[in-house]
Amino acid sequence: MRWAGWGDPAKSRELPDQVLKLLHDLLGVRPPPAPAATLESVELPPIALPEPLLRALAGVVGEEHVLTSRADRVLHTRGKSTPDLLRMRAGDGSDAPDAVVLPGSHEEVAALLRLCTTERIAVVPFGGGTSVVGGLQASRAGFAGVIALDLGRLDRLRSVDTESMVAEFEPGVRAPDAERLLAAHGLTLGHVPQSFEYATLGGFAAARSSGQASAGYGRFDDMVVGLTVATPSGDLELGRAPKSAAGPDLRQLLLGSEGVFGVITSLRLRVRRAPAERLYERWRFASFAEGSAALRAIAQEGPLPVVLRLSDENETMVGLAKPESIEPGGEAGCLAIVGYEGWPATGRDVADGWAGAVEAGRGIPLPARREAVARVLARMGGEPVGEVPGEEWERGRFSAPYLRDALLAAGATVETLETAGFWADLPRLYDAVRLALLGELGSSLVMCHISHVYETGASLYFTVVTAQDDDPVAQWERAKAAVSAAIVEAGGTITHHHGVGRDHRDAYAAEIGPVGVAILEAVKSRLDPAGILNPGVLIPWTG
Ligand SMILES: Cc1cc2nc3c(=O)[nH]c(=O)nc-3n(C[C@H](O)[C@H](O)[C@H](O)COP(=O)(O)OP(=O)(O)OC[C@H]3O[C@@H](n4cnc5c(N)ncnc54)[C@H](O)[C@@H]3O)c2cc1C
Predict the structure, then answer these.
(1) How far is CA 419 from the centre of its chain?
(2) DSSP character for 533?
(3) Pocket of ligand 1 from Cβ distances under 6 Å
(4) What's the gap in Å between 126 CA and the centre of ligand 1?
(5) What percent of the chain is predicted at pLDDT more than 70?
(6) Which of 136, 194, 343, 349 is deepest in the core (most CB within 10 A)?
(7) How far apart are the first and last CA of the chain?
(8) Global confidence as pTM
(9) Distance 131 CA to ligand 1 centre (A)
């Protein structure tokens, strides 16, 4: 992972001259005045943890698992939002942890939490480090120091129960490894966020992630049937059955808790049979309103495809619906991506009205599902514009974050944000976000797509591109404040899948109200009385 950018350096990209010229002509983008910092020039705070405390940490996990090198500290500084990257590019490593500590078992995590409580050391649980909401940035005030608790050594698939279709994983398993491990059993999770290459299962649960195939596989929190959590006050073992009426579901309290209540050390996840076939296609609609109505019809009438996203006019024009390129594609209207994963129909399935397929756990065969979805899309004004070759979709779906690095280097700020609302409120929410961004940033390109659909509503995912001013971090923070206020005002949720972190903390408090905040504070004070876990994230509780 690049320390001031995204992903594998070998996949980094350059912007074509034509695009650079367009950015300059349309948005006034100019190269930044100073070159980006080098790893050696990043300014890090001195290590605050005294030697005896570092030795005590090593006493729990072994000396080789307490890392204090410049590279290790920098790689565990903040997450991967655009302001995070801009700060690193400017050489600002002020939020670096004092040490990176890698536990090898649940017991070691529990022992570390006890030690850190006694010694008042702040602990930032660290999965893939892909948070885009400030979820990895701890407050130092009042602590002897800060450690990043890197869960990378907890990377095993513990068991697979093909009868219940449940797999147990450790939290540090990265998404591609989870898929590889499950593929050996003919299974899949089907969780494919854009951060897939680096993010971990523990991080997905802690931040309630949602992947690009959520229409078919559900959100990550839908997949979690059980959790083991180490807290400073003891262990939690949650989830004895798929559903239960035994009081409030405490799994839900831990999902989305972003490491402030405890550290997830094991997850039991619902798995599905790996599909035999995948197919992605594009549909065109005359307008975003027409396309939205079609997506609503599919979400409410079913059956759902696995992937269902609709770009607005701007995103379609720029070509982000075909995300491997941002060259203007001259596409008119609004493009939707509709994806299917499943099995071909057998003669027996057809003869018994799909009962055989459903019984075999294969669901409605792909062709039948495709036909049913196409009927609804066509009725709602959609026009099929052809299949997307599988390879193109696979390549394109992960390429946008690499493009962000190239845009930042060229002097453009590009950032994404997301919200969700009920269908009836969606047009107002869409307008409110656009107006807030354009009002604050002036000349800029604001694009949107519907990224996840439900019977009752959908998520809106925005991408904004603007020219960096002299202080691009402050420039974005002003825009973000304006847009967060607009989302709260328009009745949307402050986040559909990125989580709260530090960036959405105030808007989240406004969303759940003072009694909601008091509930979270009460849980926090009981589970983590010294307030060592992720201080400053999710709730403003200081211990
Ligand atoms: C380029 C890019 C694209 C993205 N696309 C998507 C997307 O499509 N969908 C989506 O949902 N998100 C997306 N994200 C956001 C991010 O990937 C998700 O929030 C993801 O869930 C974070 O996983 P992680 O392993 O990187 O967690 P981290 O970033 O390491 O941690 C996230 C939060 O969870 C806490 N945490 C991590 N592990 C644990 C644990 N085991 N126990 C307790 N707390 C823990 C951390 O302290 C932090 O507060 C994207 C981010 C980037 C940079």
Answers:
(1) 13
(2) B
(3) 6, 79-80, 124-132, 135-136, 151, 171, 193-195, 199-200, 202-204, 206-207, 209-211, 258-259, 263-264, 401, 497-499, 534, 537
(4) 9
(5) 94
(6) 136
(7) 34
(8) 0.96
(9) 4
